[in-house]
Specification:
Blueprint (H helix, E strand, L loop, with lengths): L9 E5 L3 H10 L5 E6 L12 E4 L5 H8 L4 E4 L6 H9 L3 E2 L3 H8 L1 H10 L7 E4 L14 E5 L9 E4 L13 E5 L3 E11 L5 E3 L3 E6 L4 E7 L5 H18 L3 E10 L4 E7 L9 H4 L4 H9 L13 E7 L6 E6 L1 H4 L5 E5 L4 E2 L4 E8 L3 H14 L1 E4 L1
Parallel strand pairs: 1-2, 1-4, 2-3, 4-5
Antiparallel strand pairs: 6-9, 7-8, 7-9, 10-11, 10-12, 10-14, 12-13, 13-16, 14-15, 16-20, 17-19, 17-21, 18-20
């Protein structure tokens, strides 16, 4: 296998948030130099990147200038200038995930059409050009309205239950997705290198904060049958293979009450549903992403111990310099691993970090994670 690995290899990442920060921490073990482009001088990656450049990741010139001397360019967020990535790829720079895949995933409507065209099971949907078309789709109620572009972390998604809700709908082009009677929200992370080697991580279960529509807890492995787990793994492999993608892909899924697995959406990068892999699996999702984009053999995704991941969200009522109340207590407990993202200021529901809890059984990990949730609070000084 001809990999692109060599000591001192340079990987450029568009975006300098917590995903890039955790990637850097793994890349150091391979002596890979990680360079970051981000508009925020105080981004989580700023203090630890080999090179940090302040710049707009949506600007053609900034992205092109940043990428042209890198061995590989990748992303930690999809909202980037794809035209510049196209030009870099044309000039021989390796860009993973490939630019056309980022372009497809930037638009939730095109993403859904891709699933439909490739017989990948997904919820029934309709596409509209603007809010004026909503009344003509009243027969589809109730549905979720999703902004086609720009949404993330629960933003750009809202429930439209009755015609009265049309008044507060998104004005621009959007995806209307049928309400599903689902039992669980699940995720499978799959990696693929240039050679086409693929590996999936064991399926995980997500529990959302109903107010912020953000993941609050993650349970690994998910409480599903062996058949469901195998079907989900095979589906994730189908998605990344149909895309022809190199890199790591989070495939978010719904398990319906009648036992069907449907693809919700995908993220072509490390993902919140894989944070626990740092402690709980033999190869973390960040190391796996690195291995895939520099064409190294993929690592074992086996589980070391069952785990629960708790997202640390800014507490309601607090805005300002972050303070982590209770951290001294929780780090005294065996099997508790905090990751603080280096964001100076907190605000309600902002992702400030996460804690992974590992134990001999999932029930033990859940019990300990609930204590972490009660004890560790992100407030302001």
């Amino acid at each position: 296998m001809n990999s692109d690995y060599h000591s001192g290899l340079s990987v450029g990442i568009l975006g300098g948030g917590q995903l890039g920060r955790m990637f850097i921490q793994e890349a150091l073990n391979f002596d890979v130099r990680v360079c970051i482009l981000d508009p925020n001088l105080n981004a989580p990656c700023a203090a630890i990147a080999h090179e940090f450049i302040q710049g707009d990741i949506t600007d053609f010139d900034a992205v092109y200038a940043f990428g042209k001397n890198k061995d590989v360019v990748t992303i930690e967020i999809e909202h980037v200038n794809v035209d510049a990535l196209d030009k870099l790829a044309e000039e021989g720079i390796k860009v993973y995930p490939q630019p056309h895949i980022i372009r497809l995933i930037q638009d939730k409507g095109i993403q859904k059409e891709f699933y439909e065209a490739n017989n990948i099971p997904t919820a029934p949907f309709r596409l509209i050009k603007n809010a004026s078309e909503l009344p003509a789709n009243a027969d589809f109620l109730p549905f979720m309205q999703k902004a086609r572009t720009g949404g993330y972390d629960g933003k750009g998604v809202q429930a439209i239950k009755t015609e009265a809700d049309f008044e507060n709908s998104f004005p621009d082009g959007s995806l209307l997705e049928a309400f599903l009677d689902f039992d669980k929200e699940l995720s499978v992370i799959v990696a693929r290198n240039e050679k086409g080697e693929m590996m999936t991580y064991p399926i995980v279960e997500l529990e959302f904060n109903p107010e912020a529509n953000l993941v609050e807890f993650l349970f690994a492995p998910a409480n599903v049958t062996k058949e469901i787990a195998e079907e989900a793994s095979a589906l994730a492999k189908t998605v990344i293979e149909k895309l022809g993608m190199v890199g790591i892909l989070a495939v978010e899924l719904f398990l319906t009450k009648d036992g069907k697995i449907l693809v919700n959406e995908v993220a072509p990068r490390p993902h919140n549903s894989g944070h626990q892999t740092i402690e709980a699996n033999y190869t973390s999702q960040y190391e796996q992403h690195l291995r895939s984009i520099i064409n190294l053999p993929l690592g074992s995704t086996g589980v070391i111990k069952p785990s629960v991941m708790v997202n640390l969200l800014g507490e309601k009522g607090y805005i300002g310099k972050a303070k982590y109340e209770g951290i001294e207590e929780v780090i005294s407990w065996q099997g508790v691993y905090p990751h603080i993202y280096g964001k100076e200021n907190t605000k309600p529901f902002r992702k400030m970090g996460h804690v992974t809890v590992i134990a001999d059984s999932l029930n033990e990990a859940k019990s300990l994670a609930l204590n972490v949730k009660k004890t560790l609070k992100v407030i302001a000084e």
